[in-house]
Every structure is written in C-alpha cells, then in structure tokens.
Amino acid sequence: MKLTVLLLLSLVLASCGGSSGSKSKKTVVNTPQLTIEAVIAELSYPASGQVLHNGELLADLSNPLPVVSSYGTVTRGQTLNVVTINGIDFLIYGEDGAFAVECEPNVDYPTHGPAHPDCEVAHAESFDTIIICNSSDPNTPILQAQNWPGYPSAMTDETLGMQCWIDGVKMKSQRIFTY
Fold first, then answer.
1. pLDDT tens per residue across all 179 residues of the chain
2. Parallel, antiparallel, or unpaired: how do β-strands 123-125 and 97-100 relate?
3. Torsional sign, CA 120, 124, 128, 130
4. What pTM, to 2 d.p., does this model score?
5. Nearest to residue 64, comparing CAs of 52, 76, 73?
6. Nearest to residue 118, comparing CAs of 109, 128, 108, 127?
7. Among residues 179, 137, 131, which one has the least CA distance to residue 157?
8. DSSP string of the chain?
9. Contact indicator for 129, 167 with CB cutoff of 8 Å
10. Pairing outcome for strands 131-135 and 43-44
11. CA distance linking residue 28 with residue 102, whole number of Å
C-alpha cells in the first residue's frame, strides 16, 4: 500500500514539475519589418513638426532646444538624430532631408525621374515635417545606410539606403538617402 501511494505521489509530483517547465508558450515571431511597422504605427503627430511614441515626445521642430526622451535626443538644426525604439535605430531629421534615388534623373538609369513608380513622394525636407527613417537592411547601421554613396553604388549595393515615413506616410522607395 505504501509503495502504491509513493508511486502515485511520485507520478503526480513528476507530472506537476514537468508541466510547469513544458507549458505551451505562444511564440510570436517578429520579423524586423513587422517590428518596424509596429513602431511606426505607435507614433502620433499631435502638431506640425512634432512626433510622440507612446505619449512621449520624441521631436518638436518648432522648439530650438533639444528634445531629450528615453529613446534619444532630437535637436532642430541637426540633420541626423538617432533614436532607438524597441532596439531599432531610427533617424529623425532636424534639418535638411531625404530623397529617393529612383526619382533623380540619371543617364545610366533611363527609367529614373519623377515618373518612376517609387516617386509618389520623391523628396522631403524637415523644416516643420517629421521625417523618420530606418535602414532598409537590418544589418546595416543607420548612419551608414543614410550616407549617399553616389551612382552606381546607391543602386547596386543592397546594404545601403533607408525606408522613410513623412509625417507617418511611407515613401515608396527603399533607396532613400540624406542630402
């Protein structure tokens, strides 16, 4: 009898102990693009030249003073301001802007120019417009990705270029650089 009780007790304890370690966990697989899109969806634009993430002010281009947040610092008058949200580096432009390579006429690329399908939004300047970008290649640091290498590198090097949003609207091109 004692042996049966001990055997049953050990089976119950073993199954209880095993179940806590082997509980089924929902695994959410986040591809870099899904994570980026989720961050962008969380941004809000309460006024011209302002952007918030989860209620925290990231940038205010009407303010000459730097905006310091838990994500980084954005300074008006400074072209490249890096902020990190959910482990992803983004640029918020405080001056100058960005352009899509496909929108620039070039003799070596006869289809490039204003009529190119990726040129719905060809250029953006950040005077009172929030331009936020991240690297088109998740393995390329944002400050390397944004740097204009000139033709033909901009078109042939798959690690260069950015994807950008202007006041929350995505530019079609994946080959956007700082000018």
1. 443 333 333 433 344 444 334 333 334 444 667 899 999 999 999 999 999 999 999 999 999 999 999 999 999 999 999 999 999 999 999 999 999 999 999 999 999 999 999 988 778 889 899 999 999 999 999 999 999 999 999 999 999 999 999 999 999 999 999 98
2. antiparallel
3. positive
4. 0.80
5. 76
6. 109
7. 137
8. -HHHHHHHHHHHHHHHHHHHHS---PPPP--HHHHHHHHHHHEE-SSTTEEEETTEEEEETT-SS-EEETTEEE-TT-SEEEEEETTEEEEEESSSEEEEGGGS-BTTBTT-STTSTT-SS-EEE-SSS-EEEEESSTTS-HHHHTS---TTHHHH-TT--EEEEETTEEPS-S-EEE-
9. yes
10. unpaired
11. 35
* Tokens read off for 116: 């190119």
Lookup: tokens for 92:
């918020």
